[in-house]
Amino acid sequence: MKKITTLLCIALCIISTLNAQTKPKGVFMNLYAEDMAQPNAISENGKWAVGSSFWSGNENQVGTINASKWNLETGERIYLVKENEFSDALCITNDGTLIGGSYLGQPAYNLNGEWHVLPMPRGYTEGSGDVVALTIVNNDTIMIGNIFAGMESGKIIRWKNSKIDNEFEYRQHTRWKEISDMEILAEMEKVRGMSIDAERYLISLDHNLMPTAMGGNMPTTYVQIGSDKNYDVTIIDREFDIYDLVSFVEEATMSFNGKHVCGRIHAVPRDGYEAPEAPSISFTYDVDKDEFVHYGDIKETGRYAGASCIDNNGHAFFKSIDGNTPLGKPYIYQNNEFIELEKILLKYEGITEAQIDAIITDEVEGSDEDDLGIVWAVSADGKTLIGAGGALKGHIWCAKLECSPYDVDAYTNVENVTYDNIAAYYANGMITLSNNADMIEVYSITGAKVMSQVVENNSIKANLRNGIYVVKIYNGNDIATSKIIVK
């Protein structure tokens, strides 16, 4: 008897918890910048972000690139440029003290507010470059970036403790010449990202130097694991119906743990086929499993989806695009469909429509441009997002969330709840409802969801083990809870 009483108390606690459950909490910050700033990257822990603008407040510096960092705990912006200088910030460590990017066109890092130019290898004294990723491994500071000598030659280089890392020898791959007889103007390959343990690198051909169309299906990016002396290369090389994969455009992003890649590619019809246009194809790629997923149109807009960033769980954030023009309106992909990010964010307690509407953009007639624009970067756990409403318009925002937008289904919005008009009963393997309803969810005594089903004729077949369960009943905007005991 005492055991039954205890179980009933636990069940009542669960019901009370479900009834009282609120939305997950979130904070939405407007980081509006009047100098056309845009974010470039976020720290792994989501506490810092870096980016660049085209104006620093000095009328003599309009049109130059000026680096900044943002404290995502307070919203404070810190300029990383002095008068008559220009710099760009592309990556940042978890404590916000070390930033990688470029200074006066040279690959450089910023430490505690001061820029330091990194050494260049022989032959690149007049070249330029940048640092695209950095990390600290076993007290060693590792940076990786691209350096250029003119527009037709380049090299990927790694620095260790601010010195050229001679143990890392990247060699140029020339798979193009193996496939095509057409003359190649340049074979400049660029590093796009590095994992936090410095073991994986995302590398692709610079699309600005590629011919517009070529015969054959050409691999254009790969994940390199380890240095060139001891490496394994995974080619991301896929075909799409009558189209051939041709080129990455703008996005090619790796998660912090190096296990996931997302991006957007162009494709052109194969020889002998005609097509109205070259589609833009968004994809995610699981490196360890070699699983490649590509995504079609966003049905409600008819536009292509572009994947802009991805977290350690392989959850990507998308935007709606038309050709090469980013029109904004960010999405997540859940249950085989694109869902507007704004609708998800509004499910968080502390985030309001007024806050999102404050991210003002210039509306584009006939487009689906959204106030939130694009999610430019996401933290490793997917709980901190930074974006900009409208490309290069300085409408920057940050969302710090209790859970990833991909996990909001685990929470319940209990506004407009009624508890006394519907009840659930269990007998002979069936759950029967006392009134009409749309669907039910059944939770075990531990709070785990064991089933979810659309309701027809007020009865649902339920193959449940003996025990106490809580049934959540959805009827329009109403949600009811009821307890059932299976013996």
Gyration radius, to the nearest Å?
Answer: 26 Å
Number of domains: 2
**Structural class designation:** mainly beta
CATH homology superfamily name of the largest domain: YVTN repeat-like/Quinoprotein amine dehydrogenase
User: What's the number of helices?
Assistant: 4
User: N- to C-terminal separation?
Assistant: 15 Å
Which strand order do you get reading across the main beta sheet?
A: 18-19-20-21-22
For the biggest sheet, the summary is:
5 strands, antiparallel
What share of the residues does DSSP label as strand, in percent? Answer: 35-45%
Count the beta strands. Answer: 36
State the shape: elongated
Helix content: under 10%
Tell me what the structure shows.
The two termini are about 15 Å apart. This protein has helices at about 1-20, 175-180, 340-345, 355, and strands at about 25-30, 40, 50-55, 65-70, 75-80, 85-90, 100-105, 105-110, 115, 130-135, 140-150, 155-160, 165, 190-195, 200-205, 220-225, 230-235, 240, 245-255, 260-270, 280-285, 290-295, 305-310, 315-320, 325-335, 335-340, 375-380, 385-390, 395-400, 425, 430-435, 440-445, 450-455, 460, 465-475, 480-485. The radius of gyration is 26 Å and the shape is elongated. By secondary structure, the chain is mainly β. The strands form nine sheets. A five-stranded antiparallel sheet has the order 18-19-20-21-22, with no helix packed on it. It has four helices and 36 strands. It has two domains: about 1-20 and about 415-485, Penicillin-binding protein Tp47, domain D (Immunoglobulin-like, Sandwich); about 30-410, 7 Propeller (Methylamine Dehydrogenase, Chain H). Residues about 10-20, about 175-185, about 205-220, about 245-250, about 360-370 and about 410-420 have low confidence and may be disordered.
